[in-house]
Amino acid sequence: MNYELSRLGISDLNAMQQDMFGTARKGSSVVLLSPTGSGKTLAYLLPLLQKLDAKSDNLQALVIVPSRELAIQTVDVARRLCSELRACACYGGRPTMEEHQLMRGLRPHLVAATPGRLLDHLQKGNLLADNVRTLVIDEFDKSLELGFREQMQGIISLLPSVQQRILLSATDTDDIPAFVGTRDYVRLNFLDEENDDRISLRLVKSPEKDKLQTLYCLLCTLGTQKSLVFVGYRESVERVGSFLEKQGIMADIFHGGMEQRDRERALYRFMNSSANVLVSTDLASRGLDITAVDNIIHYHLPLNEEACTHRNGRTARWDMKGSAYFILGPEEQLPDYISLTLSKEEGALFTLPTHVPPPAKPLWVTLYIGKGKKDKISRGDIVGFLTKQGGLESSQIGRIDVLPHWSYVAVERAISHELLNRIKGFKIKGQKTIYAIAGH
């Protein structure tokens, strides 16, 4: 299959991607260790796409991921790279039968799936794996954790024809279970090449055990920058998010206990800059390729060095820079692996100003359109509708995400209510639907 890097706005591959491309295209099994944000998804997809047969109706490659968000993201990148590719994502939280029907009609070349859902499809015969030659395990340190191992072992036992295995992670580990397969891996380790200068580490001291006010002051100081706040528990996510909203901060929340649709909406609002702040558990620390996150804020300290690495990896992605702030209460201390890094950096202690006004509201809001891919709606259809019926200029339309049953579009906040009045009652591509502002 042919691919086009320009579809992703990329002209050149970095050193890691070039090395991975040359190794994987030979058919070698690979363990790739590379920092978060360095482009590992693209690194394995490029040689993989070259091997797939566009004329075949057989499933030829499987990508196992630890979360639904990463499954969706993987398929999105693959489709944008190659128009010939038929790919789909499978994950929990929606009916298995719905996915089965989708796959029967699509006849995918590639499937990206979470372990439990993939095992279910394989055991039921919804996916036929006889022609799967390539198996990719993304975030393999997470996918092969104790809770997933039984599922993973079951999956691999049902893949009789795998010839190439590709394992990827942002943290080093030698713990690759024997059931995964061959021991003849080519090991590519780029972790030592991570440029720490891309992330500025800062310590923020809270005078009170309850750090809400300190967090609020920090976010006001950071202004309209995009900030991802990590907390330790779902209940804390709700509490912090509610507090910030009452203070006028445009914040959304994200955790595994939320309804899938609400989680999805929060993520897309943050990705398209309709919300300045996303408050999340460590669920958001892996697999989310959110561009231009300026700051990571550790409201609760990470559980270990690995968790810290994945959290901080949400900023300074590719060749961009970012900052990580650690908020400490009166009785808290930084773990050694963090304090050693901080001690090398001048100005690591970040002192908050006394009085800072709340940040301005984001330039964008998210427009919900109640039609999506299954209704044959495309990004071009949405742009055409908003410019013709809504009277918008192209500069007033931001990121567009077309999902199976609905779509999200970033539009300028200043004209959003006028836009709703203009398009109310109008059909999009001949179909009547709902238009609404999602969130704030």
Strand order of the largest sheet: 3-4-2-5-6-1-7
- What amount of the residues lies in strands? 15-25%
Mean pLDDT metric: 89
Portion of residues in helices? 25-40%
Radius of gyration: 22 Å
- Whole-Å distance between the termini? 43 Å
Number of helices: 14
How many structurally independent domains? 3
Poorly predicted sequence stretches spanning 5 or more consecutive residues: none
| Major β-sheet annotation | 7 strands, parallel
CATH superfamily of the largest domain: P-loop containing nucleotide triphosphate hydrolases
CATH topology name of the largest domain, in short, is: Rossmann fold
Number of strands: 17
Q: What's the CATH class label of the largest domain?
A: Alpha Beta
CATH architecture annotation of the largest domain: 3-Layer(aba) Sandwich
